[in-house]
Amino acid sequence: MAGFCQNVRLHLGRMLTAKPMLALWILLALLEIVTAPLWWATPFLLAATTSQSLSESFGWWAAAEVLLTAPPLIYAARRRRLPVAGVLLNIPCVYATKAVNVCYAWKALIVELVLVPLRLSKGLTVYEKGRPAIPAAR
After folding, report:
1. 42 contacts: CB under 8 Å, gap ≥ 6
2. Phi and psi, residue 101, nearest 5°
C-alpha cells in the first residue's frame, strides 16, 4: 500500500491530463480507503442518530452489504466454475482481510500523502519500479 500511495503522490498530477480514466480509478480507490471505516461504522451511527435500534440498523447495513457483494461473487464463481455456495460461505473471511488491509492502507495514505509532502517523514526511501532483482539460482 505504501508503494501504491507513493506512486499516487509521484504520478497523479501528470496522470490527470495524460490518462484521466486511470486517474479516476485511482482516485476512486483512494476514496474507498478513506470511506471504508465510515461504511463499517454506519450501523452504529444510524443507531446513535436515529430512532432505529442497533440490531435494526445493522440489519439494513447487512442487507445493503449482501446486495453489493453477492452479485459480483456469484458471477465470478459461475465464470470460474466454482461452487457458488462455497464462495458465499467465505464472505465473513473477507471482513478480517478488509480490516487488516484498511489499517495498512490508512498508514500508507497518511505517511505518503500527508507526512511526506509536509516533510515530516521520509516515507519509502527507495523508489523501485517493478519487482526487485531475483538472485540467480546456484
Report:
1. 57, 61
2. -60, -40
Cβ distance 10 to 124 under 8 Å? no
pTM, full prediction: 0.74
Residues 6+ apart with CB under 8 A from 15: 22, 23, 26
Q: Which residues contact 37 (CB under 8 A, 6 or more apart)?
A: 102, 106
Residue 75: other Cβ atoms inside 10 A: 11
**CA 106, CA 62: separation in Å to the nearest integer?**
24
The predicted pLDDT at position 106 comes to 95
Mean pLDDT in consecutive groups of 10 residues from the start of the chain, 138 residues: 91 95 96 93 94 94 92 95 94 88 94 93 74 62
Q: Decide: 12 and 26 in contact? Cβ < 8 Å.
A: yes
Measure Cα distances from 5 to 17, 31, 33, 88 in Å: 19, 12, 11, 31
